[in-house]
């Protein structure tokens, strides 16, 4: 917001310095001031856009992290529910991977397999 005051003020100081102090022709001094004001405005605009983009990228990243955490907690809750259901419905059960290897088993199955 203060750029709206800073850029014209800077242009006026540059104009006064070139025209009155250095004796630069009026057209050249005005041209320098306009070019400087445009360049400063462009740099300020680019910086503000970069800051906005960085803020939105961080916000999107944080939202993604929260969504991922929410999905993980949901999957863990479903697994615990499924595990609780298996523990109450079956006396002895296990969960196997796609190769048929036992990943986890109930205490009843452990006792059964160890007794055999």
Feature tags:
single chain, 116 residues, mainly alpha, two-stranded antiparallel sheet, 2 strands, 79% helix
Tell me briefly what this model is:
By secondary structure, this protein is mostly helical. It has helices at about 5-20, 25-90, 105-115; strands at about 95, 100-105.
SSE layout and pairings?
Elements: H1 3-21, H2 26-89, E1 94-96, E2 102-105, H3 107-115
The quaternary structure here is: single chain
Instruction: Summarize model confidence as the mean pLDDT.
Output: 86
Q: Helicity level, as a percent range?
A: over 70%
**Number of distinct helices:** 3
* Biggest sheet features: 2 strands, antiparallel
Uncertain parts = none
Strand order of the largest sheet: 1-2
Write up this protein:
- Helix content is 79%, strand content 6%.
- It has 116 residues and is mostly helical.
- Strands 1-2 form a two-stranded antiparallel sheet.
- The mean pLDDT is 86.
């Amino acid at each position: 917001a203060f750029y709206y005051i800073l850029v014209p003020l800077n242009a006026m100081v540059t104009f006064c310095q070139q025209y009155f102090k250095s004796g630069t022709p009026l057209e050249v001094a005005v041209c320098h001031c306009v070019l400087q004001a445009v360049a400063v405005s462009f740099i300020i605009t680019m910086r503000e856009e970069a800051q906005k983009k960085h803020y939105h990228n961080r916000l999107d990243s944080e939202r993604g992290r929260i969504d991922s955490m929410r999905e993980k907690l949901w999957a863990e809750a479903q697994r615990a529910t499924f595990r609780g259901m298996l523990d109450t419905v079956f006396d002895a059960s296990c969960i196997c991977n796609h190769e048929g290897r036992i990943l986890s088993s109930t205490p009843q199955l452990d006792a059964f397999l160890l007794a055999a």
